[in-house]
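Collaborator request, handled under Task 6.
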Amino acid sequence: MIYVVAQFCCIIFLIVNADFSQLGYSAWSLLLIGWVVGVLAVFNMQIGNLNILPKLKTNHQLITHGIYRYIRHPMYTSLILQALAMVFSNPKIVQWLVYFTLIVVLFLKSKKEEMYLRKGFKDYASYQKKTDRFLPFL
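Structure tokens returned to the collaborator:
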């Protein structure tokens, strides 16, 4: 639960302190790409799988198609990209610190989530070897 609270605190801080009038083309591109990645993630995922807590739900299914074929945590990728755009709109040191805190929180949350996924799905370890955590092809 601490990861979820920290995640939302970081996101809210970045939104409140963003200066959307200062967004350039690159920042708008990051927002758009992040939004598309997020929509694809929700579209590819079974709604019953959606959970903000890093644990499995009853009847949880492992999704490995669509965007999940390349990225294990595309919703986190979406947040990382959109948050970066918000930092670019108001690039003060505190925004960068909150942004890097968000990345650490999402990394730790994904590690915990993957622990549950490895226990719940015997194929998860091989899926991990074929995909990247947040950014594909790195």
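The cover message to the collaborator said: "Residues 38 and 75 are 5 Å apart (CA to CA). The chain has one domain: 2-52+59-130. Please let us know whether this matches your experimental observations."
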